[in-house]
């Protein structure tokens, strides 16, 4: 499915994108003489193209941070179970999983550090027209 259907006219069409706020399906239409993209979900959230990009960037970073925290918490839990003797015969598997979780959270931290958001100039045309 395409993010923006082609051809696109003034009638709302289903896009291949979820709403940045509620994850519902976004509809899109080309409005006005320049065909400016306007997105709207069934709840009523409305966005210009740049706002969808910014919303997706924000949701992406939040999701990765959620994964980082979850991996760190998992590693702490597993290692505490080992340290308190509550891991029983699973101690080896718990330690292996804790180490893997910490490696993965470090990878995600690096992705966050390397993944710069799209540079959007507020004076630029959101549809990329010159």
Task: Summarize the topology.
Layout: E1 13-18, E2 25-31, E3 36-41, E4 46-48, H1 49-83, H2 91-114
Antiparallel strand pairs: 1-2, 2-3, 3-4
What does this structure look like?
- This protein has 130 residues and is an alpha+beta fold.
- The protein folds into two domains: 13-44, no CATH class; 54-114.
- Helices cover 45% and strands 17% of the residues.
- It is built from two helices and four strands.
- A four-stranded antiparallel beta sheet has the order 1-2-3-4.
- Helix 1 (49-83) packs antiparallel against helix 2 (91-114).
- The longest helix has 35 residues, at 49-83.
In short:
The protein has helices at residues 49-83, 91-114; strands at residues 13-18, 25-31, 36-41, 46-48. It has 130 residues and is an alpha+beta fold. The protein has a four-stranded antiparallel sheet.
